[in-house]
Write a structure and sequence with these properties.
The structure is a single chain. The protein is an alpha/beta fold. It has one domain: 3-Layer(aba) Sandwich (Rossmann fold). The protein has seven helices and eight strands, in the order βββαβαβαβαβαβαα. A six-stranded parallel sheet has the order 5-4-1-6-7-8, with helices on both faces. Strands 2-3 form a two-stranded antiparallel sheet. Helix 1 packs parallel to helix 6. Its cofactor is Mg(2+). Keywords: Hydrolase, Magnesium, Metal-binding.
Length: 165
């Protein structure tokens, strides 16, 4: 069964986990363009993407909008509950869901995901509990590496590459 939904944590996966505040109090985050291109390709394959993050940030909301991510949940304490509701809404089984996270607050959503990933700088406990530890660090192409792993596994690599030709 192929993966139809990827679920992304933000801090430590889409970003390097650094939280910087400007003098005016705005938060500043850096995102990897390779992750963005991979997400764009995933969406253009007709697949779904969700961001489930514990923090609230206008910067994250802007990035989700840029990438046309339909399912964006911020300020979430119980990631498992939000993911289960989304899976029910989309009529997806566990085997159709892949998830990436880097810290303890991601464990609950890993429990109901069929395929789990973590950047190589995720906390050790997470690395012991997931299916694939990626070679990339959070914010340095980990999400792109996850997408490439999935498209190879699900034999959709050719379709993915045709998007760019």
């Amino acid at each position: 069964m192929s993966i139809e939904l990827i679920v992304l944590d933000v801090d430590g996966t889409l970003t390097d986990g650094t939280i910087t505040y400007s003098s005016s109090g705005d938060d500043i985050k850096s995102f990897n363009v390779k992750d963005g291109l991979g997400i764009d390709g995933w969406v253009n394959l007709g697949k779904e993407v969700a961001i489930i993050t514990g923090r609230r940030s206008a910067v994250i909301a802007r990035r989700a909008k840029e990438l046309k991510i339909k399912y964006f949940f911020e300020g979430i304490k119980n990631k498992k509950e939000v993911l289960q509701n989304l899976m029910d809404e989309l009529s997806l089984s566990k085997e159709q869901v892949a998830c990436i996270g880097d810290d303890l607050n991601d464990l609950s959503m890993f429990a109901i995901s069929g395929l789990t990933f973590a950047p190589n700088d995720a906390c050790e406990y997470i690395q012991e509990k997931i299916d694939v530890v990626l070679s990339a660090k959070g914010g340095h192409g980990a999400v792109r590496e996850m997408i490439e792993y999935i498209i190879k596994r699900d034999n959709t690599q050719e379709q993915f590459l045709k998007l760019w030709q």
